[in-house]
Amino acid sequence: MKTNEYMLEVKRTLPDLGSDFNNQLHMVIGVSTEAGELLDAYKKNFAYGKEIDTINVMEEISDIFWYIYNLCNMLSLDPEKIMQTNIDKLRARYPEMFTEDKAINRDLDTERKILEK
Question: 16 Cβ partners below 8 Å, 6+ apart?
Answer without folding.
Answer: 23
